[in-house]
Design brief:
The chain is α+β, with helices and mostly antiparallel strands and 529 residues long. 47% of the residues lie in helices and 19% in strands. The protein has 15 helices and 19 strands. It has helices at residues 2-24, 30-46, 83-98, 100-129, 164-179, 182-195, 200-225, 227-236, 253-264, 279-304, 321-336, 390-393, 433-451, 456-460, 490-501, and strands at 73-74, 78-80, 131-134, 139-143, 149-152, 155-159, 248-249, 309-312, 340-347, 352-359, 369-374, 380-385, 400-404, 410-414, 464-474, 480-486, 509-511, 514-516, 518-528. Strands 1, 2, 15, 16 and 19 form a 5-stranded mixed β-sheet that branches. The chain has a 5-stranded mixed β-sheet with strand order 3-4-6-5-7, with helices on both faces. Strands 8-10-9-12-11 form a 5-stranded mixed β-sheet, with helices on one face. The longest helix has 30 residues, at 100-129. It is elongated. The two termini are 40 Å apart.
């Protein structure tokens, strides 16, 4: 999202700047051009947030979605081959790499701010070494052994080597900068350059508006001193300058030719003002683009709504053909579109669960924990669920278990509300579901780590990391059943299945006093050095 926003800013600012370069720059309505150069970079920052409803399709809704009885608890990954510590370090390294762009941005902003402070220091140093000449509305600082001339906010700096005759015209010129508050314009761009230091267009904007400031000051000065005398002074001068970008400099040699050319131009006619009308279609194009980009997002949300539905905690979608059809449609979409995830929102007061599909990049609300939903055919998708006590435990597991009602019909029961979670031997003593799940998860991981044949990697000639996904069920009798595995090597699959099948008998889960089955998914990372 931030990348899209920055790209939009660059494109919009470039469009506005090109209009100025090829359409407005040569005209003599300087104050209008000044307003244009001040407004358009700021407007470019705002346009991406402007939404005109007439340019959009109507609105969106939040989609809700469904869940399956084939899903399973995702256990933490088991690391085999002393990989745990290394993987943790690698994971931390990856997390740091994800922040390199942010680190680079703040580094650039810090350097830009440092340059800005250095410029202020140079001005302060010059001020301390200059002789102040107080005036009523502004201050003049006479710089010793210098022929420079420039302004900074309400301060005018002029070298003591400038003759009294030239000084009069220079002060007249520089007072225009003070009266028009040109220093505020330049300071605005200095701040924008700190924030958007990576944007070269900010530097171009500042350069163009500094040139405009000189045109405005020249235009006002010649009205008082006459063009001929003023031209002679510009052409014959050899005065120095101080390279500080937020000061208005009288003798900037690179601008003198442009200033003379502009002074010799005839005034632009009133009809030329209609050139600014070009901004209207350009603005409409920009706003339409922004609206359409949002419209695509809204349409995507609207499309996702077709998969939505809600399910009572004590209900089964199998009892309603229409709900079952909606559920199948929902799961088919998630299985075929890995860029989307599901959100399961449990309303404990209403005993109801709402399922919704969202782009993977959308920010997940606080309090929702991830859960991998896996199927017997190998398909998976991710769901985020707001378990009641997840905020306290940090546990990220949830699933669907099966229990039988009084009519011996199977019902889908969210794992979040199972009375007792399955327990590894020695974990039965815990009365809290979260403690039982945590203990069982740790015991299973330890068992797999201790019993997995670590020599198999060398026997197969493997190097690096191999990953295995194992799926299994803790049945109603506590025995391990329906063990399946996926891996790039058949031998690794067989070893993983062997280890899981050797797990000890568990205490089965319970719901409403009846034993239920729970499916699990266990990722294994196996390293061969």
């Amino acid at each position: 999202m931030m990348t899209d926003y920055l790209l939009e800013i660059l494109v919009f600012q470039l469009a506005f700047l090109l209009i100025y370069e090829f359409w407005l720059q040569k005209e003599t309505f300087f104050n209008l051009n000044r307003a244009y150069l001040l407004a358009t970079p700021l407007l470019s920052l705002l346009i991406p947030f402007i939404r005109i409803t007439s340019l959009q399709k109507t609105t969106p809704a939040i989609a809700f979605q469904n869940l399956s009885d084939k899903t399973m608890v995702l256990l933490p990954e088991v690391f085999i081959g002393n990989r745990a510590a290394e993987t943790t370090a690698s994971q931390i390294e990856n997390d740091i790499q994800l922040n390199w762009w942010l680190i680079l941005y703040f580094l650039g902003a810090t350097i830009a701010f440092g340059v800005f402070l250095y410029k202020l220091y140079k001005l302060e140093k010059i001020s301390r070494s200059s002789r102040p000449i107080k005036q009523k509305y502004y201050d003049i600082f006479e710089i010793p052994n210098s022929d420079a001339a420039y302004t900074y906010f309400n301060q005018l700096y002029i070298g003591d080597r400038i003759s009294a005759e030239d000084r009069k015209q220079i002060i007249t010129h520089e007072l225009v900068h003070l009266d028009e508050r040109h220093g505020v314009d330049l300071m605005l761009f200095e701040l924008l350059k700190i924030i958007f230091w990576f944007n070269p267009l900010m530097y171009l904007y500042q350069s163009r508006i500094a040139t405009l400031h000189e045109y405005i000051a020249d235009e006002n000065t010649v009205k008082k001193s006459g063009k001929k005398q003023y031209f002679e002074q510009l052409l014959n001068t050899a005065f120095g300058t101080s390279n500080i970008t937020f000061t208005n400099q009288f003798f900037n040699h690179s601008l003198i030719k442009k200033r003379i050319v502009m002074l010799q131009k005839n005034k632009s006619g009133k009809l030329k003002h209609f050139k600014f009308l070009l901004i209207i279609p350009v603005l409409l194009l920009m706003l339409t683009y922004v609206a359409c980009s949002q419209d695509d997002e809204l349409q995507a949300e609207l499309d996702l709504q077709q998969y939505s539905y809600e399910l009572g905690m004590d209900k089964s979608f199998n009892s309603d053909p229409k709900l079952k059809e909606q559920h199948d449609k929902y799961e088919t979409f998630l299985l075929n579109n890995p860029d989307y995830v599901s959100w399961a929102t449990i309303d404990y007061s209403k005993k109801q669960i709402s399922y919704s599909v969202h782009p993977k990049t959308e920010r997940v609300p606080e309090g929702y924990n991830p859960m991998e939903l896996a199927f017997k055919n190998g398909g998976t998708y991710t769901m985020y669920i707001n378990l009641r006590d997840s905020a306290n435990t940090g546990n990220s597991s949830a699933t669907i278990t099966k229990s039988q009602d009084s009519g011996n019909n199977m019902k889908d029961v969210p794992f979040a509300v199972v009375d007792k979670a399955p327990a590894f031997p020695d974990c039965e003593e815990f009365t809290s579901n979260e403690e039982r799940k945590k203990c069982t998860s740790e015991k299973i991981s330890m068992f797999v780590n201790q019993n997995f044949n670590t020599n198999i990697g060398k026997e197969l000639g493997l190097t690096g990391i191999s990953r295995i996904i194992v799926q299994f069920k803790i049945g109603q009798d506590g025995n391990i059943a329906e063990v399946r595995a996926r891996s790039s090597r058949e031998e690794l699959k067989e070893e993983a299945i062997r280890v899981i099948n050797s797990l000890p008998k568990m205490t089965p889960g319970e719901q409403n006093g009846q034993k239920v089955s729970v499916m699990y998914s266990l990722p294994i990372a196996f390293q061969t050095k």
